Please model this.
Amino acid sequence: MTGNPRTRERILAAAERLLAERGPVSMGAIAQAAGVSRQALYLHFDDRAELLLATVDHIDSSGPLAELRRWVSEAPDGLTAVARFVELHAEYSPHIIEVARTIDAGRLTDPDLEAAWSDRMEGRRNACGRLIRWVAEDGALDPCWSPDGATDYLWSQTSLRVWDDLVNARGWSRDRYVTTMQRTVRRALAGP
Amino acid sequence: MTGNPRTRERILAAAERLLAERGPVSMGAIAQAAGVSRQALYLHFDDRAELLLATVDHIDSSGPLAELRRWVSEAPDGLTAVARFVELHAEYSPHIIEVARTIDAGRLTDPDLEAAWSDRMEGRRNACGRLIRWVAEDGALDPCWSPDGATDYLWSQTSLRVWDDLVNARGWSRDRYVTTMQRTVRRALAGP
DNA sequence: GCAGCGCTTGACACATTGTCAAGTAGACTC
DNA sequence: GAGTCTACTTGACAATGTGTCAAGCGCTGC
Model:
């Protein structure tokens, strides 16, 4: 909305930190942490949903995402790119897991949040589709897959949810997650 | 708590129906749908968390879960049991997905819900552990897996989250989910 | 000096959860 | 038939959270 961009930045930084530390937090808590009034939040964001989504975008643009994406795209072949994609998620998921959980929860009741989050999921699925086409062009995709099926599979395997289950719920290390998922995804996509 | 078991049943049935139809609903809405006062809910359940968990238990015990479990345990060998386990989830997940989503969302802020849901997850993981031991005893488990690792993997693959992503978000049919997951899980566990 | 932007202050309506106290209707007992 | 107990109702309340509104204040640029 309107308002000073530096204040907006302060709010987003506070939201990012609080969500990472405490999980779901109230608008009041974010305002307090940012050192502004609760009303100031509504000068910059229409509602809680918009603030949460802006926080994700902020993490995306201020974190290592762009560099990791470039690294994936510079892989020598499709299957290596998929392996790097798994590593990208192992690296990046910790940065957004808490915000993502909060949005994922709010999605159930807030149509705006649902729509925006679906868009993001769609973007990630497109990235998966490009990787699968790459693998297929290399002739490395097992013929039992349709391109769409393989895309959906890769998308579901590299979701925050699976990462969250294995790393946070089951306590896997980053390396264990990467090694295991690279092996299973490769076996699934490329075949024996 | 106290109260007439038939009233309790009415409340649980209403909660089950409303959650399936509308996702997260308020205590007031459940009471109204059950034809009792909102206070009656608190005569039967300490709080919202307990009602949600009782609703899951109610679905478990009134639905096809027991029979499906027996069917899995009667498989001729470990890998067939795993395949049936995938089918069990394809069959059963639609029954509990909405309640599970609601609990999963509430888990972030409610420690009781978190603890109870973790217990349930632990139970499901134990079932996965038994299947993996069965596969290993058959000599069919790829040596690259540790028993724990394979258990966690099977547990994460057969989670409601992966099922939800593929079937609800991506629109896969029940059969497509079953066929694909059976193939990928088998390849991952048994090797080429 | 002053106009306007950005933020603050304090209030409000509304929804939701969980609690409390008093009341009621029916069944069961003596 | 009077009394009692159980299960539920009714209506109120506190606490917490979201989103809105109106008035005010301070700094900056003209």
Summary: Residues 2-4, 7, 36-37, 39-40, 43 of chain B lie near DNA strand D (CB under 10 Å from a C1'). Chain B touches chain A at residues 23-24, 101-102, 104-106, 108-109, 118, 121, 144, 149, 152-153, 155-156, 159, 161-162, 165-166, 169-170, 172, 176, 180, 183-184, 187-188, 191-192 (CB under 8 Å). The mean pLDDT of chain B is 96. Chain B has ten helices and no strands.
